[in-house]
Amino acid sequence: MTVLEQPGAYHLAPPPAWRPRLDPAPLLPDGEPYHLLGTEADLDPELLSRLHAGVVRGRRFNEQATALTKQGRLAVYPSSTGQEAAEVAAGLVLAEQDWLFPSYRDTLAAVARGLDPVEVLSLLRGDWHSGYDPRATRVAPLSTPLATQLPHAVGLAHAARLRGDDTVALAMVGDGGTSEGDFHEALNFAAVWQSPVVFLVQNNGFAISVPLAKQTAAPSLAHKAVGYGMPGRLVDGNDAAATHQVLGEAIERAREGGGPTLVEAVTYRMEAHTNADDASRYRSSEEVEHWRAHDPIALLERELRALGRLDEHTVEAVRADAEDMAAGMRDRMNADPVLCPTELFEHVYDQRTPQLREQSALLRAELAADEELAAETAAGGTGAERAGVPSGADEGVRRPGSETR
Amino acid sequence: MTVLEQPGAYHLAPPPAWRPRLDPAPLLPDGEPYHLLGTEADLDPELLSRLHAGVVRGRRFNEQATALTKQGRLAVYPSSTGQEAAEVAAGLVLAEQDWLFPSYRDTLAAVARGLDPVEVLSLLRGDWHSGYDPRATRVAPLSTPLATQLPHAVGLAHAARLRGDDTVALAMVGDGGTSEGDFHEALNFAAVWQSPVVFLVQNNGFAISVPLAKQTAAPSLAHKAVGYGMPGRLVDGNDAAATHQVLGEAIERAREGGGPTLVEAVTYRMEAHTNADDASRYRSSEEVEHWRAHDPIALLERELRALGRLDEHTVEAVRADAEDMAAGMRDRMNADPVLCPTELFEHVYDQRTPQLREQSALLRAELAADEELAAETAAGGTGAERAGVPSGADEGVRRPGSETR
Amino acid sequence: MSTVETISAADGTTAARKPVTMAQALNQALRDAMLEDPTVHLMGEDIGTLGGVFRVTDGLAAEFGEDRCTDTPLAEAGILGSAIGMAMYGLRPVVEMQFDAFAYPSFEQLVSHAARMRNRTRGALPMPITVRVPYGGGIGGVEHHSDSSEAYYMATPGLQVVTPATVADAYGLLRAAIVAEDPVIFMEPKRLYWGKADWSSAEPERVPPIGRAVVRRRGASATLITYGPSVPVCMAAAEAARAEGWDLEVVDLRSLVPFDDVTVAESVRRTGRAVVVHESAGFGGPGGEIAARITERCFHHLEAPVLRVTGFDIPYPPPMLESHHLPGVERVLDAVGRLQWESDWTASGVSSAGGFEGGGE
Amino acid sequence: MSTVETISAADGTTAARKPVTMAQALNQALRDAMLEDPTVHLMGEDIGTLGGVFRVTDGLAAEFGEDRCTDTPLAEAGILGSAIGMAMYGLRPVVEMQFDAFAYPSFEQLVSHAARMRNRTRGALPMPITVRVPYGGGIGGVEHHSDSSEAYYMATPGLQVVTPATVADAYGLLRAAIVAEDPVIFMEPKRLYWGKADWSSAEPERVPPIGRAVVRRRGASATLITYGPSVPVCMAAAEAARAEGWDLEVVDLRSLVPFDDVTVAESVRRTGRAVVVHESAGFGGPGGEIAARITERCFHHLEAPVLRVTGFDIPYPPPMLESHHLPGVERVLDAVGRLQWESDWTASGVSSAGGFEGGGE
Lengths: 405, 405, 361, 361
Ligand SMILES: Cc1ncc(C[n+]2csc(CCOP(=O)(O)OP(=O)(O)O)c2C)c(N)n1
Ligand SMILES: Cc1ncc(C[n+]2csc(CCOP(=O)(O)OP(=O)(O)O)c2C)c(N)n1
Ligand SMILES: [Mg+2]
Ligand SMILES: [Mg+2]
Description:
The complex is a heterotetramer, with two copies of chain A and two copies of chain C. Chain A is of the alpha/beta class.
């Protein structure tokens, strides 16, 4: 029972598992968000111009998408106005073989990567859950359940590394999403596996109505990196050049086998959470105005102008390009999408089960009966009435007053 | 679109949400686990004696429980041999009004707190899921799903604070459990709410067969505290005095409104994961021997002896006390528990549903029929045969070879 | 929805009534529960300052303070897990899950702890927790915003599962859920949130307790058994069925657990035919259990097998296709038509449908 | 278990056979799948060095390296979530959940992603993931180690749910699950892990594909419909029933999703009577769906309602009481006795049992 008899036990060196295995200092983020615009830093004007065109297009994209909600052409739109710098930097920084894992707010990052705006908007338009081919575009579907896409990014990056590919995954999440268990599990797996993945947290101050102070007591979200043994970086998310650089460094580090990085981009959501949200319920317009003065477009334009790379002609060209994109969106989104109701049964499994075959036949029969009926009577019953829901359903989208996503 | 026209935007101070809100330095744990035994520290001999009696009893408890598995009296036992210092410190450090949230390995902490060993062993004996009254003892049921008890501890501590009580919750978890999402969510809630809760991670080097290096890449588990904005402490978990002191400080801090603390106690599991596990599959006996030299009982005895507080008489008394406890356990555990099968229906809901009333009646009728049959034939059929499972079931417990909990 | 409202308004109280939405009645129930019992605490995402994305908690943080109506961090397991701890300390938490599918992260806490803590501790730690889950579709919600998840909860012993279809039940059942000593999954049909009925907040009418179904419409030809968002659909179907000469009875289950076998069996024995209607996917959904129970209890009274009209066995569709998925009046009537009426006895009927090689193409 | 083994061994191959446990056959299936397809990756807790707590992955890390048989951190959502990402990149992950109840933390990843990713992306991102879940009781496991969680998975469109009851099926179905293009929840009955049958690893007998039920025993009086751990119980019951003059047919479902309506309906139409047997709680469990489907398809062939013999509607009991909970031979025979045999036609039968006020005391 007692081990008194064991001589000298205590004088042995404590076992090796004891000591912290690495110095935390290099993992800690800076005390201030890193920024480049407006500093003396020597910046690549080509890159700045590309970022500028991107954020201008991005702002226009957000405006157009919001307008489409008013016309009933989108079920809902979570705008990234104010956050265009981080969104565009994320979309532009990746190499071709890299993957992007956007959250539901990050349509813009996908568009900046070059995806078709209309395809990216499928989820929010409501014609299908995801409208682009993730393998072809190397953009995962927009993730609605918060933080759940982060383990996917880790798994994909891990698989790529196992295969010997030099693919990196960039995974995006909001400040609110960092509270989810999946955030924790993803970062831990990534660090243990040294997976080539970069986590980009856009801290825009709010999770719907909940301010950061109710979300975390951490010194910063970037400080969470320490607990996983990966470096944390804090960056001015409205500074497109700084965000692009920090992400780029993290991605190259990952590509070279250096493992994951957590990047916190500090920014602000200028609009309400979605078009259905009323932000005046939880924040002051002074706060919003304060941030308007730190607009990502203005920051870039000031810099470009100082470099002599922005004249009215360039501004006009960039604006025209953005208008073109918006006009295209408008035209194509105003056309009703072609829908095939029995497609509902096509992709549930690789092969339809016998049960789904039956159900598909049932729906097909109903649709045929409807058509017959419609042929008979001018103003015949439609699928919507069949479903016993209020009319209006056939516009594709009905949203009761305060419904938010 | 462009905001070129806005003059001077960039010269406004960046918004306040930007800066890390507190200095991470005070949150960081020491580079070495804190220890007291064998140092020049001035220690309370009374406390050392209590801790010594506790760890000796604890070791004996573990031995006796393991022996009971061999006799088929316990379904399984996860021993805390080697970890008695942390277990006993946790059990003894709490004030009467405080709550303990043990994990499945922490029977010993509950026993050290004063609970009846036989009641604490119910889960592992298999007569009921939990054998003591958590409200009366202020010990939550042993938690089997890892880390799930941590949010409970936070909620309870939060509730106590809302009520104005000075209750603190001490929640225990293993190194493996820190990887679960619930660990993350619990620590975050506690920090945001500044709940009076202390998280004690016993880092015993393994989660069943998985070594710490496959569990985390963090500098230490205590470093995870930084990401939540709470202090992390690293302590020698085999040093009962140091662990008791670090926990005591954290508890008093919590009691006074200072919020939560994460404590990592570095220790080692000397036995296999449970009696059903074969540790030789995944670790060397050298490693085990290395740790045997840092035995928690030996550390205390050396200190007490140096203080002149441990003579053979004391050792004998402590040993006798432990033997008494073990004998009591043996006697009581060797008696078959009185079981009432229809109790299965009694606690599912506050009131049995009509369906459960029917099912209870069915079982009662079956039991009555069995009894009649048994009365008729000397070697009649029993419930076990009725259930169509191999005989042996009535011994209460059958474990196939490698099944582990 | 008007049919149901009429019914709920016809139960008879005298106080002044005015049109109230289901969301408002739920809000009132929370307010009254908080006034009556200081241990009632509300927790969830955006339920404080914002008043919830459906405004069900509107004004409660202002009235009772943030400690009693708390915006939590964004973590559902953390919310439910800390609610369990609060209940251990004697509080009575009411949790809001923002949408059906966002309750899934809390599944382990729900199934392994909330549902079992009382049983685990022989009654020492009851779990008087109400989990409010806005559920179901028909609101044009994008993916993950229209799930019908009740089958998961029904399959979990230790949970009660309750769902209102009328304004009066919304108030009455939520009050009952909050005072219940067991965890109640309180499923709020999203598309009925803005349905109005005349109702008096000063003198809310009494409703039957949890565990009791209610016959919403008397009929003699067949029984429609339903709950939540499908109740108005069935009421409309019963109305439309009159034209076909069918007099349908409609049973609103209200409580899926405990299940009211008596009311259901009494009705089906009387009518001899039954159709179970719900939005949730059919396979493995609530309807199988319900149909099986009816058959076990009413076999010799049945003129036809109990049929089911449910959502298809598919993930909930995107908004533009959801109308095809939701069980509607026509689909209910089609099923009623397949109940082997005397006139059809020569036809092959349902028993030849299905089968592994059978079906569509 | 010997009856079943005899049956599985009777399917007829010629290679040398020797007694093999189900756990060994599963191990062999994993090994063969890994040899055949380099994209097969195993992930889970303790599956590497230790070989899994049930030793099903024994030796595979040594043979294929840690990258293909990986000990993950202890986090089930992380395991399944990263498996999803690996599948997105073209790998074919096989995940081990250590015990049934420890799969719950991964519920959101399973339901909201694994089950829906193919559908979400119109087939662009299939999810060929196998999730191995040791399930069920009868092994003296303490709380959380004996859950039967199949009802949750059955209610989730997009998942296939498969469970073997014989050594040959353990091998054959696991191979089929791994090559399937969809997520398969592969439920391994814990208490059959050590059951042995003569089997040849060199020439494993072919078994019917996923989606097909198998008649394990021919009979004429009534059909027992069952799966997984209850198959041996039903075989024993059928044997015992001969003494009572009943000739029972036993259908082993093997695959709960997709469900084999043809085999089941064919059998029940022939026998006219059916009992569904499973360990999982009855209410909201698989049996309700199965009974309802049978009734829909075989109504006019049924001499009695389809009955169910299942676990009680309670959390799984502690080890010392589990024998009372598990459906056993006697309970199955009691149910068969209530199938309204001609001789009983004057008695009241099952249809008067139950009801809200009814039951016990
Ligand atoms: C798991 C989960 N819980 C809840 C929600 C509902 N929800 C949608 S967005 C949102 C807030 C997200 O905040 P944040 O992560 O900061 O991202 P942001 O909206 O600011 O981009 C919430 C609670 C969800 N989508 N997923
Ligand atoms: C959620 C969950 N997943 C898996 C398990 C199975 N399991 C039981 S103990 C254990 C290892 C625990 O390791 P650790 O947290 O370090 O505690 P220790 O056993 O070392 O005390 C595992 C994986 C579990 N109990 N709960
Ligand atoms: Mg945010
Ligand atoms: Mg450990």
